Amino acid sequence: MTTVRHTDGIEVTLPDGRVVQADAAAPAGDVNVLSHAHGDHLYDEPPASLVCSELTAALAGVRRETAPEPATHPDVELLNAGHVPGSRAALVTCTTATGETTRVLYTGDVSVRDRFYLEGFEPVSADVLVVEATYGSPEYVFRPQAELEAEIVDWFEDTADRPAICMGYSFGRAQEIQRLAARAGRSRLLVSDAIADLDAVIERHLDVRFGAERYGESTTLEAGDVLVLPGQTNHLAFVERLRESTGALKAGFSGWAVNSSFRYRGDYDETFVLSDHCDHSELLEVVRGVDPEQVYVTHGSVDEFAGYLTAETSYPAQSLQRNQTTLGDF
Ligand SMILES: [Zn+2]
Fold first, then answer.
1. Which CATH class is domain 145-272?
2. Neighbouring C-beta atoms of residue 316, cutoff 10 Å
3. Separation of 211 CA from ligand 1 center, angstroms?
4. What's the pLDDT tens digit per position in 7-53?
5. CA of 21 to the centre of ligand 1 (A)
6. CATH superfamily of 3-139+277-319
7. What is the pTM of this model?
8. Ligand 1 center to 162 CA (angstroms)
9. Confidence band (pLDDT; 50, 70, 90) for 104?
10. How far, in Å, is the centroid of ligand 1 from the Cα of 246?
11. What's the 321 CA to ligand 1 centre distance in angstroms?
12. Which residues contact 79 (CB under 8 A, 6 or more apart)?
């Protein structure tokens, strides 16, 4: 029997009794896995052994005081998750003394789209699937990646007579915005220190150069410049002052931009759909590709996506609520 719970991260108890803990703040499993280096998946203190990619370990070292030694485990296969640089899904294989084998796949955050320097996730078969559902609601379907990117490049070209202030997660989206601005030939790329530090680590591990300068108090924002800032700075007073004093356009980049409220809530001049997650139809594609006997849904629209799977497909699905005590076991 395999049990999956959302406690501190995702806790999988395998048929042989071992506990695999993924993306925990205080990892304490028999096997500990880190899918990627986004803050809501990262440890506070790294455990003695943490199964993750080398790039995730290096990026974790930028975001936390201590970097882990990236470990491997004979029962854990790390698969490209296509979410952000270094991100991996974990395929855990457990063979009991009686010779019965169970395969559990934890996607972490996942995207099937090939884009920039990322290769999309390719589903593999498993008995139990633990899948994210950030965009698990059916209204979230994204257009083809090439169209989304072309729209952004066109906007950078059309507005090159003004500076642009672009908001996106500092890890993942911020780097993609830089690549699109460069593709449009914008004159100068400026980024915050946090983004510059992440750029440097990614450049060392992947075949990509961002070519951005650090934005500081002495930097003057000019026409043609593209300044990329972490999304959480959006409502800070200095951004508004900068926008007013330079005539900059402020743009937001997110999968949530499918919904028009994203633009008004963020007070953006322009918003673009750009996501590092599967949309609703791609999540279905992942489930069908894995073809599991049981699906657990975590992160985001968990009830909605689990309900959709139960109603519209043949896959038994259950949403994972944090610290929920009564769960069906597989
Ligand atoms: Zn993430």
1. alpha beta
2. 15
3. 24
4. 999 999 999 999 999 999 999 999 999 999 999 999 998 999 999 99
5. 17
6. Ribonuclease Z/Hydroxyacylglutathione hydrolase-like (3.60.15.10)
7. 0.95
8. 32
9. very high
10. 33
11. 18
12. 88, 89, 90, 91, 121, 122, 124
Domain with CATH 3.40.50.10710 in the chain: 145-272
Q: 165 C-alpha vs ligand 1 centroid, how far in Å?
A: 23
CA of 37 to the centre of ligand 1 (A): 7
**CATH 3.60.15.10 spans which residues of the chain?**
3-139+277-319
Distance in Å, CA 120 to ligand 1 centroid: 14
The 3-state DSSP composition of the chain as helix, strand, coil percent (nearest 5) reads 30, 25, 45
Look up residue 162 and give its DSSP letter.
S
Instruction: Find how far residue 87's CA is from the centre of its chain.
Output: 8
Q: How far is the CA of 109 from the centre of ligand 1 (A)?
A: 5
What ranges make up the beta strands (E) of 192-233?
213-214, 225-230
pLDDT per position as a tens digit, 264-313: 999 999 999 999 999 999 999 999 999 999 999 999 999 999 999 999 99
Residues in the chain: 330
